[in-house]
Specification:
The complex is a heterodimer of chains A (about 350) and B (about 325). Chain A has helices at about 1-15, 25-35, 60-70, 95-100, 110-120, 135-150, 160-170, 185-190, 195-200, 215-230, 250-255, 285-290, 305-310, 340-355; strands spanning about 20-25, 45-50, 75-80, 105, 125-130, 155-160, 180-185, 205-210, 235, 260-265, 270-280. Chain A is α/β, with parallel strands linked by helices and about 350 residues long. Chain A folds into two domains: about 1-10 and about 20-290 and about 300-305, HypD, alpha/beta domain 2 (Rossmann fold); about 305-345, no CATH class. In chain A, helix 2 (about 25-35) links the parallel strand 1 and strand 2 (about 45-50). In chain A, helix 2 (about 25-35) runs parallel beside helix 14 (about 340-355). The two termini of chain A are about 30 Å apart. Chain B has about 325 residues and is α+β, with helices and mostly antiparallel strands. Chain B has a seven-stranded mixed beta sheet with strand order 9-11-8-12-10-13-14. Chain B has a five-stranded mixed beta sheet with strand order 1-2-7-5-6, covered by helices on one side. In chain B, strands 3-4 form a two-stranded antiparallel sheet. In chain B, a hairpin with a 5-residue loop joins strand 13 and strand 14 (about 320-325). Chain B is globular, with a radius of gyration of 19 Å. The chains are: A alpha/beta (about 350), B alpha+beta (about 325).
Amino acid sequence: MKTLVHVIAELAGQMKRDVRFMEVCGTHTMVAFRTGLVQLLPPNVKLISGPGCPVCVTDTNYIDAAIDLCRRPGVVVATFGDLLRVPGSESSLERERAAGAQVRIVYSPMDAVLLAQQSPGRHVVFLGVGFETTAPTVAWSIQAAHRDGLNNFSVLCAHKTMPGAMEALLKDHAVRIDGFLCPGHVSVITGAAMYRFICDRYRIPCVVTGFEAWDILKGIALLLRQRLDCRAEVEVEYSRSVTEQGNTAAQRLLHEVFEPCDASWRGLGTIPQSGLAIRPKYAHFDTARTFGIQFNQADVAPGCLCGDVLRGVLTPPECRLFGRACSPAHPVGPCMVSSEGACAAWYKYEKRAAA
Amino acid sequence: MNRDRILLAHGGGGSLTRELITRMFLPRFENPVLQPLDDSAVLVMDGTGYAFTTDSYVVKPCFFPGGDIGKLAVCGTINDLAMQGAQPLWLSLGFILEEGLLLADLQKIVQSIGETARATGTEIVTGDTKVVERGKCEGLYINTAGIGKVVAPNRWGAASVRPGDVVLLNGTLGDHGIAVLSQREGIGFSTSVVSDCAPLWPLVKTIVETGAEIHAMRDLTRGGLAAAACDIAEAAGAGISLEEAALPVGREVRGACDLLGLDPLTIANEGKCLVFCPEEHAARVLAAMKTHPLGKEARLIGRVQPGPKGLALLRTTIGGERILDMPTGEELPRIC
């Protein structure tokens, strides 16, 4: 570990300018702060957090739609835990649960299918949020429900795919990115080849990185090396899990159940072909269709700068709400809620820096 | 956004619990005995100090690897007394039973209450029973109160902790929380993790008998090590610096936490405590702790320093430093 820090310092010394590497995965953000590795980096190497936290990039209007659903009689909303506390325009699922709504935390989408099987008189809506990592398990649950002929299960689908968001950030030019630490878990499914267009089209180095502190340090060293050599390639630091082509069985499953669609990202706006929609064959498991859900335009909470944080334009303490009106106990924006959100990581581990 | 209702997170032992206590309860009951918010109140009568505490147990499920709600209730109450340097003497038990609860289950629970109390020399001296309609509680809830006699020569408490103290811990972190979590419906994984649920008084007695100077003890319950360290740092107006490398976390607990996106330092324990004592007494206290089965893995995990005031810090294994923050409330497994 010491050697890696040393190597980074030496490479950074040769750089003779500031470099900004974006980690596009919430778990990377969390590990970087939890292990304190950000403090071991030379002053001219900056890690910036990207739109890698699935909860954080989910638009407010999706939360509002979920809240609307859980208020309907006979509907049970099943969700992963970290969506529970995310504020919508005027409430959160946590508050709705306290007020009597049926909101259940599940650990896997299959638990939601099971819940539907056990609750014939009620309709179970699973909140399908997350990247390529989570989406295959949701596809699997939809197929299982299809096989069982379940008619009281559906998915409110807002799955997203990573490459489009990375490209949008590069086109945006609001923030200079010198390299991407690409998400290890996502890449296990998609394969590392997915990022090649970023290198080819934008000349930005990409390193697929694992989740230990030394993985991230090694990823940073590889990015620096590429920069110094004027290379832009996809390298795989996380080679113990990631292959070039990824998990083809999971990819087939995704393709069978979902089709690409335009998706609305908090902070980034609508990005073409960056989301997953449920294919017509499985339309009766699509909550938005069966319940006629309209995703209304939702206002961002006044002063909340989560959008800029997600694009890497601002660091969390640069938001005026940070640590004052917005804290993990009383979050205003989603980046403060999710355990992988940049604001939560910053608040939890670095709030001194902000004080 | 409305803040007009109690959320589950208010019961998590983190910052929302604290907010509820300091904003709702403290201002209305204000008195010097309650004020320190230690594990139990210390009342002085005829020159003798008595520790007095109350607690409620709503654990789900009622039976878990390493214990049940009955054993937990006795241990938890005894531990709150022991943390003030008090020998636990008398307990009360209030049962809230759900209509339909199996008598055989109740018998098992009552049996384990009796065994745990006897093993620690405490007596159940009064009690109460209520039955509520089916669906109004999950099997049964238990409320307890406990009285103990303070045998420590000086007053223990968070406010007595000062810079120069060291922080000792008696064993691995997170076992109880993960053992209980693994039994919840829908969690879908099995572990061999067993709750550390145990009465700490025998260990505390061993420590008192060394004659070493102790400033405070704190058992690590809801909110885990993080909540306890934050609480003490704040009450002492000092900084607490802990060494991540010194913190013992079992392999399975670490694995389960990684899987669920939880932090072992915020997971509940029921048989673990921190000891704060001056550095020159640490060796003696540690040696004594190690002679007891509950302290076999006792170790020094950190130090109290003048600042930053009110903050707990963690020196990470790779040489960084970060805040050890008060958990917010309910532990929520994450998406990926």
